[in-house]
Amino acid sequence: MTIQQTRSKWGQAKFGAGRVPAMAIAIPSGLILGAGLGLLAAVVGITGSNPVLGGLIFALFLAMPAAALVYALIVDRNTLQGAAERPEESIESRWYDHAAAGSFTDLILVAGLGATILAFIPGDFTVDLKLGLPAVVAVCFASFGIRYLALKRRG
Amino acid sequence: MRNLVNESRLQLGWSQQRLADELGVSRQTIISIERGRFDPSLPLAFRLAALFERPIEELFFPDGEPT
């Protein structure tokens, strides 16, 4: 059986000597990871007054991203329908590289400006890392996404 | 960099998707090369030249140089 014949919308992953649909591994793994992280959240006491409900909410919200992460890690892109055989030579690869480089520059700029502004604030002013780090990630996502779309639109 | 990829492809009667499949790249890559917005890597340029059976310098040439 050739690779061309085994291509599918969601692709396959290597499993032992053979291949299985990537989603058949990703979804259960995501659910297990989500449940594990939900349990961890309840055990360490960051879920508020109701650890069971809090743990369930954690698990629900983390299961899908965990499944997506596992899928991205395990899927063999040669088994995906419509995937180019040489993505590194496609223009999308160049858009990605340019957007990532620009996003890195934006991150340095934003972090530098932020640090400068914070240095001029008198008194004890602290930034909660639980808010600061997601903000940094959000800036990176936004910068990368906007740059990639702009490059794509330009062609 | 300008090129004759569009003309060469049309001579063969191929669609952009067919050419993309032959080269293992996305159709958007072919569109961008034909519009002159994307200079392909050297290996890709050589594969294009081999596919169209013409020397690479007949397929790609610098801006300002006559075709």
Describe the structure.
The complex is a heterodimer of chains A (155) and B (67). Chain A is 66% helix and 5% strand. Chain A has helices at residues 22-44, 51-74, 91-119, 129-154, and strands at 12-15, 18-21. In chain A, strands 1-2 form a two-stranded antiparallel ribbon. In chain A, helix 1 (22-44) runs antiparallel to helix 2 (51-74) and helix 3 runs antiparallel to helix 4. Chain B has one domain (2-58): Orthogonal Bundle (434 Repressor (Amino-terminal Domain)). Chain B has helices at 5-12, 16-23, 27-34, 42-52, 56-59; strands at 2-3, 60-61. In chain B, helix 2 crosses helix 3 (27-34). The A-B interface holds A 84-87, 89-92, 94, 154-155 and B 20, 23-26, 28-29, 31-32, 35, 37-38, 40-41, 43-44.
Label the structural class of chain A.
Answer: mainly alpha
Overall structural domain count of chain B: 1
E-strand count of chain B:
2
Distance between the termini of chain A: 37 Å
Relative strand content of chain A:
5-15%
Largest sheet: spatial strand order of chain A = 1-2
Number of helices of chain B: 5
Oligomer: heterodimer
Mean pLDDT, all residues of chain A: 89
The fourth-level CATH homologous superfamily of chain B is lambda repressor-like DNA-binding domains
The number of helical runs of chain A is: 4
Indicate the overall shape of chain B: globular
> Can you write the helix and strand succession of chain A as a string?
EEHHHH
**Fraction in helix of chain A:** 55-70%
The average pLDDT score of chain B comes to 91
In percent, how helical is the residue content of chain B? 55-70%
Q: Which structural class is indicated by helix and strand composition of chain B?
A: mainly alpha
